[in-house]
Task: inverse folding
């Protein structure tokens, strides 16, 4: 089953509308959707390594725009939608503690957490709720999300065939590691 899902994702990544799908996933992941864009970014670059920079660029721009939606949710709708998203991820008991930490280290939080598998939507919503400076927020999002996505694209562009062979030969292991990283990100956020 995992092999069929992997093959289907590679076929999806090679389709003409794949960039649009990547943009939607990147946008929504930064504000409310739980699946990270890496799920599409990685197979898209593996399928079309010559388009690595374009793919990373779309992923970055859509993620920053989605981050602005997350920021707006926190800024204007924190008590309703923002709290609902935080509750959805089981972080209600840590929200106040996180906000206090965010007061002192807001820029550092955005820069570090934007590079990790920790759910970026928590950062964007909290940035809005804390009324973090919007210009600094956007600049930090561009830097951190761009660094993350362009680094992944660069590695895949440069070492694509060996990485793809590794992934295909150890598909279950790679899937479990990716899943562990995703779940680990949620766990780390809950223990801030």
Result:
């Amino acid at each position: 089953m995992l092999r069929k899902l992997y093959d289907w994702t590679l076929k999806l990544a090679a389709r003409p509308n794949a960039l649009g799908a990547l943009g939607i996933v990147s946008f929504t992941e930064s504000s409310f959707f739980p699946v990270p864009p890496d799920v599409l970014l990685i197979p898209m670059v593996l399928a079309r390594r010559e388009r690595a920079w374009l793919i990373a660029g779309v992923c970055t721009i859509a993620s920053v725009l989605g981050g602005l939606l997350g920021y707006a949710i926190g800024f204007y709708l924190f008590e309703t939608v923002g709290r609902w998203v935080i509750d959805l991820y089981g972080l209600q008991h840590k929200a106040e503690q996180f906000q206090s930490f965010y007061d002192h280290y807001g820029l550092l939080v955005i820069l570090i957490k934007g590079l990790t598998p920790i759910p970026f939507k928590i950062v964007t919503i909290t940035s809005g709720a804390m009324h973090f400076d919007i210009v600094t927020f956007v600049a930090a999002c561009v830097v951190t999300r761009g660094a993350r996505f362009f680094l992944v694209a660069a590695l895949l562009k440069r070492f694509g065939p060996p990485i793809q062979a590794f992934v295909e030969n150890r598909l279950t292991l790679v899937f479990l590691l990716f899943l562990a990283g995703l779940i680990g990100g949620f766990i780390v956020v809950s223990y801030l």
